[in-house]
Amino acid sequence: MAPLIVAVMPIGLVFGAVAAAKGLSSLEVLLMSALIFAGGSQFVAMDIWTHPASWNALAFSALLVNIRHVLMSASIGTKMPAFSGPAKYAAMLLLADEIWAMAEFHAGETRLTPAWYAGLALPFYCVWVLTSLAGSIAGAFVGDPKTIGLDFAFPAVFIVLVMGFWKGREAGAVLAASAVAAVIADQFLPGVWYIAAGAAAGVAATLFGSQRGEARA
Questions:
Q1: pTM for this model (two decimals)
Q2: Distance of alpha carbon 153 from alpha carbon 143, whole angstroms
Q3: Per residue in 110-151, pLDDT tens?
Q4: Region at 49 (left for phi over 0; alpha for psi -120 to 50; beta for the rest)
């Protein structure tokens, strides 16, 4: 988990700096990262943030961005027989893309345990919250993240996670369908509909590939 924790540090700093530039106090940034703990939706929220904030737009955007957590939690939840009910619920509250990916890898080799999951998720959570706070405090010194390449930190992490799930042509078809749909939606639809479009296209490609495999069998 250490490389992913290092990778999330600049992302947390950038988020804190962006949030501070939008007028949020350091306390508000701290609470947002601690209570929401969803980097993607937090960045989207800052992108559409206004004064006064449009709560309906913020809530709907967060729903679109985070709808993937339904599938992620359903997948990882089936691999948690060693977790009690409260422990499983707590684990889902700390679920993030990086944590889900690492837990899925681990579950493929051995049984998930609450202690192992806590060792995975809690350091990642703490680093995200603290770097967000640091970014809000030092926002004036961070400046435009694009000038030093920090804007690519977020995509780089997800590229690494996606490649970890590579399974040949079938996975490539799903990734290609998601990418094409997301790019087209981004060009022609406002807001964050490209996220929903990419997810829907990926699911459709997966179902199509599964049906073709069953037909051949």
A1: 0.73
A2: 15
A3: 899 999 999 999 999 999 999 999 998 887 566 666 666 666
A4: beta
